[in-house]
Amino acid sequence: MTEQAVADLRTRAARTSGTVRIVGAGLLGASIGHALRALGVDVALADASPAQLRLAIDYGAGRAAHDDDRPLLVVVAVPPDVTADVVAQELAAFPDAVVTDVASVKLDPLHELRGRGVDLTHYIGSHPMAGRERGGAISARADIFVGRPWVVCRDAETPASDLALVEGLALDLGATPIEMTPEEHDRAVALVSHVPQLVASLLAGRFIDAPDGSLRLAGQGVRDTTRIAASAPELWVQILGANAAPVVDVLDALSDDLRAVADALRAPDAPGARRAVADTIRRGNDGVERLPGKHGQSRRYESLVVMVDDTPGQLGRLFGELGELGVNVEDLRLEHSPGAQFGLAEISVDPTIVRHAEEGLLARGWKIASLPS
């Protein structure tokens, strides 16, 4: 957890009060704990693994839960295959508390709980669209939820006060609450999270037998495309198994698209082949345009690629001088070439000031690796 993240959180007035019990002290559970503690909230941690619990406590995510705790809110942050079990246990143990879970699938646990006849009046499924490739309490950070969507799955029987607790938690952590049904949620994450994980893993798997010389050519594009391939297989087996049907629907459609492109490229000079390839790329352009950008806006930015010496303080100097020029950095990507003593910083800025930024950086001695057209 960064010092800046702590400082930012401490400037907020917490909506969450009383004791929050967090069951599961891994990445998400410990991250929630860090963020709430920075707001002055009492956080009681519980975990089936004593070692994981002690580690989360040592890192400051909360204190050990006590038998006499009376939490107002319980957050279940355990793997999907035990989410229903733990939610049922927490509802029984704390009948006056609101219980939410942060599992990445929502329909499967709900069906299981309903099948058991569990009273779900005070249960609200939720899911922060946040995470990291590496899990565990050691990887937890208070700021991983900032600016991220936090899906809240309510139903007609959900008391307004219970909903306010869960949405207040999301807001306290800097996230944006979004109400969806469990069905809508699971279809959505199949498209924007679960299938991308599989695609990244399948592509990265092709690297295993690739010649070293080929991999030395890898640039930022392939790194961006395969970044999430470093995720834990054990967790993803559970996630994909619990959301199998929506994932299969997307995979089948994607398979049809891949087959159509492959057929076109088998005979690239055949009538219509080049158009099929061009349409595929164009549809990708149109799809990317629909992705929300900074502050939820759908805007296009221009990029400058600046050469940055691989020495301490250079990136900070670059940002400082951009600030002096009045240039707001909308996005940033860093790339290092093998064996090179410099990095490439791709900076996205508003198109109306890209020339101003370019001229100002050149005047200050920076080298621009590529200029906007």
From TrEMBL:
Pfam families associated with the record: PDH_C, PDH_N
GO molecular function, one term: NAD+ binding
Highest taxon of source: Bacteria
This protein's UniProt keywords: Amino-acid biosynthesis, Aromatic amino acid biosynthesis, NAD, Oxidoreductase, Tyrosine biosynthesis
GO biological process entries: tyrosine biosynthetic process
Prephenate/arogenate dehydrogenase domain residues: 18-295
Family membership noted in the UniProt record: Belongs to the prephenate/arogenate dehydrogenase family.
Designated name of the protein: Prephenate dehydrogenase
